[in-house]
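Predict structure. Chain length: 139.
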Amino acid sequence: MTDLHFLEVVEVDLFKDQRGCLVVSESLNSAYFEVKRIYYISSTPTEESRGFHAHKKLKQLFFAVSGSFDLKVSDGDVFETVKVNAESNGYFLKNGFWRELSNFSSDAIVLVLASENYDAQDYIKTFDEFKEWRKRGAY
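Prediction complete.
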């Protein structure tokens, strides 16, 4: 695994036996933020990508509940990509970073825990606007 500069690994415990797998990560609220919203992404065609935005205030935890996907993040200059797999660690992304999700496996289900309720004003929707926002030091 490469060194991560923008993402923090969220450790999980995996309990696997003949009944299946139980994946657990405890104390997420106290370690990262109070979860105000939970959503999941599924049925994404393998050739499609999602995200392509940044958040001014929102922090997120990403997990693959099933399958896998690539999570690519940037500070405006450098990009960092990790493959997020089911039954493995999740990733914490703080506010102020660009994100793109791609290379979804056919069975991928992405679980996202968010620090804020939905707010359209929190989104930065173009990479150029994001780079300008970062230059202003608004994060």
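Summary: The longest helix spans residues 127-135.
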